[in-house]
Design a protein that fits this description.
binds flavin-adenine dinucleotide; six-stranded mixed β-sheet; about 270 residues; 2 domains; alpha/beta; about 35% strand
Length: about 270
């Protein structure tokens, strides 16, 4: 599907916990057949009496359907743009641009996938869950959160079966020294065909160290302005066949092979 500007109507915009909201939109065009897990849209957050967001804000597709024209986002209310988004009411309008970027790889021939998510990474990776479940591919998930109240387990799985491991900052379980042996055991025992991650610089670095020959993909959450490949604000460094190359996260990404990501990742 060509990237388009879509004038949408808000169907639902509700809190799922103290920091995240779920947004459901009706779009004038059927997006379901043309949007894949890992892609994102640029949301033109409204101007309110207190907020005047300038740039559009990038948000991953959290879900599509069941109607062909419905699209869902799960967003962390954190700054000017998302505070404005938070104020939208059912029946209100929101313009979105997309679908943008390259999504995750997936094959229904695979036996098992491992999903390693933290924070907003959970929203980005959530569409992989129904994709794998529908294809009969087993899912193992390792979710990392500040505390049990922040986990969003139901929002992630949405009823799909998975072997789920949860680790938290509140009891020290999410520390790299604790997650490394856990991930090592999971990889050794379950031998996933693909490992996906999003939302944590530390988890990405850990996976780069321990994956070995297991295939892995990361969705990078790089700050970006235009998301059309023009402004180059989201360019990052990658290793490809021993050569250092630059790619735009908005166009060539946001999904890249885990092994290819070089240098600092800009999220916490
Ligand atoms: C491809 C992609 C997918 C994303 N998917 C989600 C998602 O599904 N759910 C979610 O909650 N968040 C997601 N984010 C992060 C989200 O875009 C930022 O949290 C949001 O832009 C913050 O806007 P703000 O105005 O509320 O915050 P502010 O901090 O006030 O934003 C100021 C500026 O910085 C930019 N910015 C700030 N933080 C980020 C960030 N982490 N990444 C990129 N730009 C940033 C904004 O676009 C804006 O231009 C995604 C980011 C990218 C790049």
């Amino acid at each position: 599907m060509k990237v388009g500007t879509h004038a949408c109507t808000v169907v639902e915009n509700r809190w799922v916990n103290a920091r995240y909201k779920y947004l459901r939109l009706a779009c004038p065009l059927p997006l379901a057949r043309h949007t894949v897990a890992g892609q994102f849209f640029q949301l033109a957050c409204p101007v309110t009496d207190t907020e005047a967001p300038f740039l559009r804000r990038p948000m991953s597709v959290y879900g599509i359907g069941p109607e062909e024209d419905r699209i869902e986002f799960l967003y962390h209310v954190k700054g000017v743009g998302t505070r404005a988004l938070e104020r939208l009411k059912p029946g209100g309008s929101l313009t979105i641009v997309g679908p943008l970027g390259a999504g995750f790889s997936f094959s229904s021939d695979w036996k098992r996938v491992l999903l390693v998510a933290r924070g907003v990474g959970l929203a980005t990776m959530a569409p992989l869950v129904p994709l794998a479940a529908r294809a009969g591919v087993a899912i193992t998930a390792l979710l990392s959160a500040r505390a049990p109240a922040d986990l969003m387990r139901e929002e992630f799985l949405r009823g799909a079966p998975a072997d789920l491991h949860a680790v938290f900052d509140s009891d020290g379980g999410s520390a790299v020294e604790r997650v490394e042996p856990l991930l090592g055991r999971i990889l050794e025992r379950e031998r996933p065909d693909m490992v996906y991650t999003c939302g944590s610089n530390r988890l990405l670095a850990l996976l780069q160290n321990i994956l070995g020959s297991t295939a892995g993909e990361v969705a990078l959450e790089q700050q970006m302005a235009c998301a059309m490949g023009v402004c180059l604000s989201c360019v990052r460094l990658f290793n490809e066949d021993g050569t250092k190359v630059f790619h735009r996260v908005c166009c060539e990404g946001p999904v890249f092979p885990i092994a290819a990501v070089a240098g600092e990742v800009q999220f916490g």
